[in-house]
Amino acid sequence: MNKINVGLLGCGTIGTGVAKILIENKDLLLSRVGAVLNLKYVADIDLETERGISFDDGVFISDAYKVVDDPDIDIVVEMIGGEGIAKDLILRAFDNGKPVVTANKALLAGHGNTLFRTAMENNVDLAFEASVGGCMPIIKSLRESLVGNHIRSMAGILNGTCNYILSRSAEDGSSFEDVLAEAQKNGFAEADPTLDIEGIDTAHKLAILTSLAYGMEINFKDIYIEGISKITPMDIEFAREFGYRIKLLAITKDMGNAVEARVHPTMIPFTNPLSGVNGVLNAVTITGDAVGDMMLYGYGAGMMPTASAVVGDIVDIARNLLSNAKNRIPVLSYQMDRIRKIPVRRIDEIFIHYYFRFSALDRPGVLSKISGILGDNEISIKSVQQKGRKTNGAVPIVMLTHLAGEANVQKALTEILNLDVVSDRPVLIRIEDENQKD
After folding, report:
1. Residue 255 near residue 206, CB atoms below 8 Å
2. Is 205 annotated as catalytic?
3. In whole angstroms, what is the distance from residue 89 CA to residue 69 CA?
4. What would the pLDDT profile of 145-192 be if each residue is shown by its tens digit?
5. Per-domain residue ranges for the chain?
6. pLDDT digits (tens, 9 = 90+) for 260-309
7. Is 347-431 a CATH 3.30.70.260 domain?
8. What distance in Å separates the CA atoms of residue 378 and residue 385, rounded to the nearest whole number?
9. Catalytic residue selected from 87, 140, 205, 247
10. Superfamily classification of domain 138-299
């Protein structure tokens, strides 16, 4: 009977899930792979915490380097996370001729170009399905199913914490702070949620997707990032009145000689399928020249959904090993000599529709002053609402615009902030609405 030895590095939440599947579904995997996927080693610095798994003697160890240096290990699975020892272990596994499976999106976004190149130089596979979208097969779709398509654009809800917060606030008007505390209590948010709520985690994933979609080097540092911490229940309610929901979106578009790659709160119409993706769920819409529009949907985090994607990668590599095939599918979908440096369009170069909310003193002529500045900066107003929700003498003035340039918008908002009739910093939320043709 064929046997593939697996070495697992890290037995935290996701690592534990991977171990559970490999052990509990061992017979199922044998029937589908044609070989035993033998979990030979599990390495973790914490050998005391109860994980609900019974390992055979000698399997659970503390020395990760013993795993990557063991000549009998066929596949290394990195579940440690971070950009330190995880990177060293992966590179060492490559040097030892071992393929690697990882879910480490921060490492791939920050050092992916080095890792991908090193994997190819050592003629080993690097698989990372679980790094984006949890159980959604977005990586496999881009590398395999959609290989005959020019990808025109993608938009995704790629962080369950942010989606949970925005969904709950839309349901009952709860504040950002209250819903975040609830999410932390329920285990949907980390004790330090900065990477999630400030959009950084989402940008890590977008950097990976843009590389796969367009054949470009990882571009994390070029991505515009804006989080959700300034979104208020008032803005969510105004969005609803205009027929929109607010989601933290990862957006990328092929602009020909450049790409857009940005992460920010976005208003999308109720007719957009992403608007109905709530709670901790994730989803990605993809537009290709052959397939048109499609959407993937599922749990983007959690022990077992993410572990499912990791095991899927293990099986893919095991099948390659059994067939004596290496690098059958290019790690970034494109051949390495076709990977290019494609510029990412700066945020101030985009043209889009906007939502503005101004806190203005209740005085005559205020609206004309604001409108005048917008007009002077070539920003055309589509609709205006002035609500009577007076706070500290100020009322909200809400506007939607026709297509406008980001650079002009930022200049106009700076000028408006300096008006003596404006009592607080203006709120800006970008709108993605294909129904608006102007």
Report:
1. no
2. yes
3. 10
4. 999 999 999 999 999 999 999 999 999 898 899 998 988 888 778 889
5. 3-133+303-338, 138-299, 347-431
6. 999 999 999 999 999 999 999 999 999 999 999 999 999 988 899 999 99
7. yes
8. 20
9. 205
10. Dihydrodipicolinate Reductase; domain 2 (3.30.360.10)
